[in-house]
Amino acid sequence: MTDGGSGGGSTDRGMAGIGTQAVAEGCGWKTVAEGDGNYPSVWIFKNINADLLPTCGQEIGTLKNIENLEQGIRVIASRAYSSSGKEMTVRDALNSAIDEEMSADPKVFLMGEEVGEYQGAYKITKGLLLKYGPDRVVDTPITEAGFTGIGVGAAYYGLKPVVEFMTINFSLQAIDHIINSAAKSNYMSTGQISVPIVFRGPNGAAAGVGAQHSHCYAAWYASCPGLKVLAPYSSEDARGLLKAAIRDPDPVVFLENELLYGESFPVSVEALDSNFFLPIGKAKIEREGKDVTITAFSKMVGYVLEAAEILAKEGISAEVINLRSIRPLDRSTIYDSVRKTNRLVTVEEGFSQHGIGAEICASVVEEYFDYLDAPVERIAGADVPMPYAANLERMALPQVEDIVRAAKRTCYRSNSTTATA
């Protein structure tokens, strides 16, 4: 937690930035202003459900209590999955999250191509039209710019649209509305306009769908102030993060992965509660280790966990960090891990140049260079439009063996006998 100093914080929803302390409380929520270490005059306002943070006490206002609050968030974000055996697909996790938020708040509505009668291109919105009707589950023409603009306008007037893109690649048709209309309005209006909207859909490669449908645009959106960018891996991630995104007062780009929709993951009893959510801006340590830190998000988390199993057989203990939140980025969890392991590998399926890994590596080198015992390693997609041919598509994307080799390089181990998944 960084104290932003007294350089005059910005205002948010009419609340003064008064230092590193809580500035509003009500209805079981606490809004906490946190100074950004890179930009001391900028404040991040986090909405935290106080009921989920019993270690914080009733009154929050001092730096110490804020530190307790952050520790409480860390406990929630890093706890292990339930061992009860209950499983849920990512598809069902997303569906239930939307359903529960629509049920709880009549201002929430869904719009996009085929979200209603067809029940979603990937069946994420199955059953919602029948339950909530065409006024709240709105089928749109094939015009991303058109329906995104309508969604942003609705958010200006206090509604909470969830805008679905058939692929985030097609969101580029509407990027003017996402960035110039949604992301900038709160700042340009000095906090008078909130834009509570979620832009969601599959991001990154599927299988054999060509260059127009296959690229990861996490880095594009994560570079834009005013947006929050989330990328879930598991069912618990998907459910908790989407509920948080819908409740958030700011525009959120929610990056799913088509190949994860049918995957099942264990879910805890807490995650099935209708009040469950995961805090935006907090990563999750999926696997603890001591030799090398490996960061990833979305589908690549699974690849990294597979690589960690292979590395363990060769005596290398990898700490796996599921970023969950791309913007804001949980730098403190990454820094803490690097201080322990002294090595860093980043993994993403997007382009290497100007990518998420580039930002993480630069940040670690700037802040914790003296802790590094080896050069940082970046694993990313090939710098080409995605090929259509299956063999070339595989070559264009990171594979488990690539991660194993990079981790071994940082540990100065020979790759001559590297196992493959």
Automatic annotation (TrEMBL):
Residues 88-263 form the Transketolase-like pyrimidine-binding domain. Its EC number is 1.2.4.1. One of its GO terms (cellular component) is mitochondrial matrix. CDD domains: TPP_PYR_E1-PDHc-beta_like. It is an enzyme of class 1 (oxidoreductase). Gene3D superfamilies: 3.40.50.920, 3.40.50.970. It comes from the Eukaryota. SUPFAM superfamilies: Thiamin diphosphate-binding fold (THDP-binding), TK C-terminal domain-like. Tetramer of 2 alpha and 2 beta subunits. Its main location: mitochondrion. Its cofactor is thiamine diphosphate. The pyruvate dehydrogenase complex catalyzes the overall conversion of pyruvate to acetyl-CoA and CO(2). It contains multiple copies of three enzymatic components: pyruvate dehydrogenase (E1), dihydrolipoamide acetyltransferase (E2) and lipoamide dehydrogenase (E3). It holds the Pfam family Transket_pyr. GO terms for molecular function: metal ion binding; pyruvate dehydrogenase (acetyl-transferring) activity. Keywords: Metal-binding, Mitochondrion, Oxidoreductase, Potassium, Pyruvate, Thiamine pyrophosphate, Transit peptide. It catalyses: N(6)-[(R)-lipoyl]-L-lysyl-[protein] + pyruvate + H(+) = N(6)-[(R)-S(8)-acetyldihydrolipoyl]-L-lysyl-[protein] + CO2. This is Pyruvate dehydrogenase E1 component subunit beta. It is found in: Mitochondrion matrix.
